[in-house]
Amino acid sequence: MGLFYVTTPIYYVNDVPHLGTAYTTVVADALRRFHLLSGDDTYMLTGTDEHGQKIERQAEEQGLAPKAFVDAMSARFREAWPKLSIEADRFIRTTDPDHEAFVQDLWRKVRATGDLYEGTYEDWYCVGCESFKTEKELEPGNICPMHKKPVERVKEETFFFRLSKWEKPLKELYARRPELIQPQSRRNEVLSFLEGGLRDLSVSRTTFTWGVPVPDAPKHIMYVWFDALANYRSALGTGAEARFWSKDSTIVHIVGKDILRFHSVYWPAFLLSAGYSEDELPIVFAHGFLTIDGQKMSKTLRNAVDPVRLAEELGPDVLRYHLLRAVAFGQDGDFDHHALIERYNADLGKNLGNLLNRVLGLCNKLAEGKVPALGEVTPLEQELFDRAKAELAAARAAWISIEPHKALEATWAVSSAANQYIDRAAPWAAVKTDPARAHTILAALLAVLREISTAIWPVMPGKANEMRAQLGLPPVEHALGKDGWPTGPTPMVAGHALAPSGALFPTFDEDGTKAILAKLAPPKEGDAPAGDAKAATKAPADDAKAAAAAGDASVITYDDFAKVDLRVGLVKTCEKVPKKDKLLKLTVDVGEPEPRQIIAGLALSFTPETLVGRRVVVVANLAPRDFGKGMVSHGMLLATGPSEALHLATVEGDVAPGARLK
Ligand code: MSP
Question: For domain 336-538, which CATH number applies: 2.60.40.1180, 3.40.50.2000, 1.10.730.10, 3.40.47.10?
Fold first, then answer.
């Protein structure tokens, strides 16, 4: 048993919960649930960041006292998260009295070391970032590159924190403990920032009042990031929960890449200065940013895609699954409404849901709705069990290394293997000659389904338990010190009653898909208000329509282009085609339950082994092409060049197979 403490950023209350903040919070909750299931002693923290100039101004604009404003806005977050099945141990607010008292104490500790001194600050400040900016960080015209708004010139008395003193210790720390910043690419970012040198940091303000007062210097209020970062420690207090901040605890701050520097430069420096030891520093995992249907999350768009509404329409588990599966954690990714429904139909409906349905249906038909007995295990069952065991171990490893997308990939590989097994073992045929064999097949499948029902719990707590109810099993349990992560199929008790109750994930047919997309998807091009990012895409689309109408055959409309289903594929296997010099036979994962077979004229440029594991671009809705001898190609790869010197089209980064190109 270990101690595991996971946090999300505390969110600014000038905004409402949106898909971006929901993403971070869902990941943290899923990680926490994995550790709960593994028997760890866990704690999850989320909350709201309520002080600072940005919030004070927003309250003013709305004609409200800051406290009334933050009370109302903070409640939006507190109420949203449970609707996404997020269960934090504490929802902290930086206006909580115990937090304020803690921050003042932290300040005193830092001051006592001589790391705080008084002076005058004069430079640029971006209120949106709540961050000081050097000239070289700004775009021409003194524009903040993040907020695209002019920064403000600030000149005021301030306390400085001696950040420069921590440059060397931090460099040494990260050289010694690379795991403290993840993933690796983010670590490099921090290292190069440190290489650039650290300037002392202004950590108090005197020109407004909405913040925590600096002890013994009533004119000053604390810089909002000093106050905010301290939440991670203040939340635990000094009682029993303080155990989560110790060298024995794994402390993980999940943050977006936008706030990496605050977490991996300022925060450890504050902690070390205040006397915390190096072996109780947090791991900072910075993930990428989501776009929505390929577009940056402008405020309009962001508010059009309300995670709570998505959860109400599809169920929280479906949203959680998609968010975690569609994006390789750490990378930027797109939340695409079409892909959401496609993935729902494929992974949830056709893969796992259908497997459960088929097995329970067959148990009804062939075993009186009860768990049949597992008889003699043949190599076929053994293969399934071995595969399940290996994939479950891989999923566990992925959860531990904070790679939820990989954990889900491995978990679903178990379901795919079981689907393949059922077709190969064909219990419906076996029953005609050997009923005991048919029972063994079903018992093997039930043993695997039980493991899957536990393994999906961190991401789909509700569906996991619904699935278990259908299998006649109690809800997932977890207990301190007891590792409940499934390790490999063990047969269920024979004779135990099953309780099928309909499709776990009813799929959307074509009309259903259209209807749900019409309900969910944000307004289309052209509906966007002027000035919004989407409006910019309107003109070229209209131009194309006009050109097409005027008979210019070389120009196609967007709708024509959209007919081509271009997807990211991951090459799973590849082999030469005997007697065909140019052809390779590949299986390519395009986000469907089974990889597709694709025959491609690549053999003059590539040997098969160099293609396995590569990401390719697949035309997925091309009519199948028969190359003879049962070799049918279900798609085409994009490439350029002569056949003996081809270059394959690909995408950057670890994009999930099946992602659409648009
Ligand atoms: N209040 C600070 C954090 C203080 S933590 C001590 C803050 N708040 S915020 O409301 O702006 O939230 C930023 C975080 O929201 C990001 O770091 C990220 O976790 C999440 N996201 C906001 N937009 C996002 C996307 N478009 N995509 C993914 N996550 C994003 O910064």
Answer: 1.10.730.10
